[in-house]
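Interim report to the steering committee. The following record documents the input for alanine transaminase (405 residues).
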Amino acid sequence: MAEFTQSTKLHNVLYDIRGPLLQKAQQMEAEGHRILKLNIGNPAPFGFEAPDAILVDMIRHLPHAQGYTDSRGIFSARTAVVQYYQTRGIQNIHVDDVYLGNGVSELITLSLMALLNNGDEVLIPTPDYPLWTASVSLAGGRPVHYLCDEDNEWWPDLEDIAAKITPKTKGIVIINPNNPTGAVYPKHIVQGMVDLARKHDLVVFSDEIYEKILYDDAEHINTATITGEDVLCMTFSGLSKAYRICGYRSGWLAISGPKADAADYLEGINLLANMRLCANAPGQHAIQTALGGHQSIEDLILPGGRLREQRDVAYKLLNEIPGVSTNQAKGALYLFPKLDPEVYPIKSDEKFALDLLESQKILISHGTAFNWVRPDHFRLVTLPNVLDLEEAIGRIADFLSTYKP
């Protein structure tokens, strides 16, 4: 019989945060082991529940959410997205500029597929959320990673970005607040990136899914407030993180800037949106209630709030481990600790994570899964309660005290 193999389009597509390590963890669970999963930013398993108002509103709309919606999404939800951005000072987004999706992930892939020809380049941060790199590759493009500087709050290195722009560069990705580092970019950094996009006629892809999860004095700058009318900006956000409803798959893409000049590209987005028919209808009904109601995330990120407390405990305990250091997260749900290569001469951070899993029954994500350039980091999710974090980081410390790579 003929052998059936995967498409060559997948040869450069990786998504290791749900790769071999997770498969090993699932195998161990099937054998009866209890695994503490600190690899995925999924609030529900850690006791974070959806706000009651969202649940009630979705239940109320279920009898009317059985058919296809407009391919862009229901009008009331898209209007709520527009009105939200108006409160943020963005006036050039209209209802027909908003596409609702089965999470942001679907819309990222859709927007890149509509733009890229084979060999086109897209600038993506390193470290990154790996879906961006995978989606560029799947669309036939070439991901080009620009450095974020750990010694400068993990902010993007503007000189490195400028040096990597070529005639083939079509777009630049901004992940702010950043996953996996927790960095929140100040205005001058966002401005510098937009200025480069303006100079070189690049599309800006702004991933802002963590925009409401901010700590201390961090301020989120919506990229579209800077791009204005002369830089095409694709803004991605949704409900999964701030409203703790990842499984509802409620995300959106909002398009701003010179839309007339991008009409052909936007027609391509519309074509692909039509082909997938629509996003799931019940999840769309959560958007208006979420954006217009009480913002319960604020109770979690202020002093005394659970997310804030967990972040602080994880930061303190990780930095107390000899040979481990981490910048404090100003946003999102993660820390990205560094393992001093003089203390831990690790050649494969994936093997390090596997050894930790087998020894301590703790699942983390290795740094190179986020396209980081060296095997000397890992990402830790700060969603578990304080007691579980204390136990987990204590076990990581015990493991490292005797670890011989």
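The chain has two domains: 9-49+299-402, 65-291. The committee is asked to note this result when reviewing the revised timeline.
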